[in-house]
Amino acid sequence: MAGFKDFIMRGNVVDLAVGVVIGAAFGGVVTSFTNAFINPLIKLATGGVQDGVIKGGKFSVAGVDFLYGDFVSVILNFLITAAVVYYAVVLPMNHLKEMQKARAKAAQPEQAPPPSLTLDQELLKEIRDLLKTQQTKQ
Fold first, then answer.
1. Which of 7, 22, 102, 116 lies at a 20 to 30 A Cα distance from 36?
2. Residue 124 lies in a domain
3. What is the pLDDT of residues 38-85, one digit of tens each?
């Protein structure tokens, strides 16, 4: 039970749940916009109403109607939703992450160059090198 509680209380799960709810509500808004404005424009542009029958946005073959206007509306609905999510959520989040990385990088102290050797260490290094050269000569 404790593991489940930890899983639910993680920020990502809560954010995901909020995103799904907001996305569903926004999908309804976009669908309403498409039905109220885009569909009539498609129907007007592709034939409008003739004799009280909507002729635009569809064609018939052997008495079967193919509603391409509805398909175009769904495509536009998807594109509008995707664009709003991208510009309202993805771009700001990416910008926020970049700012956090820049702040984290600025907060880190710069690494100092390795300290130079002291006089004693230099002398010991020279002695070591001399001993190595003497051993290789023998």
1. 22
2. no
3. 878 877 777 766 665 556 677 778 888 787 777 887 888 888 888 887
